[in-house]
Inverse folding.
């Protein structure tokens, strides 16, 4: 599992200061999420698509991420148009689909995709270490940043351990099925992962102590903000706020 797939690149957003990108993303995501109607979310979606073009991230993994995200949005379309109060737009027997419900589901879909694309364009173009470093500079709680960094960094380690145990079970002839043997095997896999995670955690903790970890990660290098970062931050902030004011 590779969680930093989009951080490999050399576009303007890959080189931009992560502190500026986090601030722009926070403002964008909040105002986009609370916007109403169709027009304003569409403008925010257009802005996030421009960021996507600038970021030059790879197309195939991008489509994969958007597909999984939109899979859950399907459930919104299954329920909201049928249950949202309003005038019925389509009637099929006893089923009534309201026009207001369709507009509301469409608005949610556009906002979700705008925020997901902005997340990939702004945050995923930086490594997790750079994001944690930037969060500390933005005076976020150190314990929260440490938890974020350790979770994001070592979730791949736990996933690798899961794959090893799964391969070992497959080599012994295990074939998943709907029976008690399968449930017991998966219980053993979860138990094995817990033991492996504990062992790896002790090894990682010792390695972190050797690197100077004393509850927090020491910072030896700092960001150098450039003129292009300031221009990007000012223009992005102006666009995001102007869209909100004009809505």
């Amino acid at each position: 599992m590779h969680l930093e797939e989009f951080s490999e690149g050399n576009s303007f957003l890959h080189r931009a200061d992560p502190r500026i990108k986090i601030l722009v993303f926070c403002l964008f995501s909040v105002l986009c999420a609370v916007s109403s109607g169709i027009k304003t979310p569409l403008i925010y979606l257009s802005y996030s698509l421009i960021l996507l073009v600038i970021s030059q991230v790879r197309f195939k993994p991008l489509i994969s991420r958007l597909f999984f995200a939109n899979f859950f949005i399907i459930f919104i379309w299954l329920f909201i148009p049928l249950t949202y109060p309003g005038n019925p737009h389509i009637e099929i027997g006893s089923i009534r689909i309201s026009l207001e419900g369709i507009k509301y589901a469409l608005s949610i879909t556009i906002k979700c995709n705008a925020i997901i694309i902005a997340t990939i364009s702004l945050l995923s173009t930086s490594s997790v270490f750079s994001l944690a470093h930037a969060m500390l500079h933005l005076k976020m709680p150190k314990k929260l940043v440490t938890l974020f960094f350790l979770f994001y960094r070592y979730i791949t380690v736990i996933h690798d351990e899961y794959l090893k145990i799964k391969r070992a079970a497959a080599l012994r002839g295990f074939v998943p099925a709907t029976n008690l043997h399968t449930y017991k095997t998966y219980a053993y896999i979860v138990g094995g992962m817990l033991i492996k995670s504990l062992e790896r955690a002790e090894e990682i903790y010792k390695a972190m102590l050797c690197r100077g970890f004393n509850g927090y990660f020491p910072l030896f290098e700092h960001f150098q903000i450039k003129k292009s970062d300031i221009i990007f931050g000012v223009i992005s902030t102006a666009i995001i706020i102007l869209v909100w004011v004009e809505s």
